[in-house]
Amino acid sequence: MDIRQLNYFIAVAEERHFGRAAKRLHMAQPPLSQQIRQLEEQLGVRLLNRTTRRVDLTTAGELLLDRGRQIVNDMETLKADVYQVGKGATGVLRVGFSGSATYGVMPQIARLAKQMLPGLSLALHGEMLTPSMEAGLRDGTLDAALLRPPVASQDIDYRVVDQEPLVLAVPSFSALAEDKPVAMHELQDQDFISYAPESVLYRITSDLCRQAGFQPRITQVVGETSTMLAFVAAGGGVAVMPSRVRAFQLDGVAYREIDNAPPVELAVAWLRGHRSALLHNFLDVVVAATAPGHDPLPKDERFSPS
What we know:
Blueprint: H1 3-15, H2 18-25, H3 29-43, E1 48-50, E2 55-57, H4 59-86, E3 90-97, H5 105-116, E4 119-125, H6 130-139, E5 144-147, E6 156-164, E7 166-171, E8 191-194, H7 200-211, E9 217-221, H8 225-233, E10 239-242, E11 253-257, E12 264-271, H9 277-290
Parallel strand pairs: 3-4, 3-5, 8-9
Antiparallel strand pairs: 1-2, 5-12, 6-12, 7-10, 7-11
Helix pairs in contact: 1-2, 1-3, 1-4, 5-9
């Protein structure tokens, strides 16, 4: 018994008439009758009681009709699911992202992904540093990452999707909270709160301070953006951060522009050679979400992991 014979039987059983079933199936009646006889021979039971006017189901036929409908429906659902997965329209994608992206582009990406890929489920891993995300991409625990380049591993490809200026988070009660840009040399006597030394922003902060003629006095190292801002609010020091973190409003924290500070980049990264259709579609979502007003890239212009 195959799915084709099952569909033939269901049509006859529902129509209770070979002629109407043949018309429904767009085939001649004799081949249909032959297929039903072959099915009965294969199963070794009579499925239909035939008369000149109608067809009735035997007990075995009623069971086959009931179970057969389920099988056909399951087959159609399976075909649709396989197609959706193959086209990258559904599935689970594990995405890591930096702490500051939590308050910037990640909500936009998640919102747009829900619209463009309603069958996509995002497993988000936030507050990660670039080295940790690189490790996750290499060991397969992450499928994609929103990180701060550069990356150290040659096994990872990435594309810069956003640039943003740096700002200084300061205690709102400090003299630095005055509404004007801050020059780095003004921070020589300040305590700094920073991410871990292996982070990109740690290196950027240290470079800016050295260029201004001093070594930063880093008194607190934290792993999460929210914790960093809590220390700032408590008067524990200042912190150099990407400007999108302004979306996180916390009592006791003020944000100030930094004179002549270079922009910091955000990139979407993936493991080289990862050719999942789901990943490709997610990359299109990232491009669209980080370039407001632009449509997703045409198929022939999409960037492909390779």
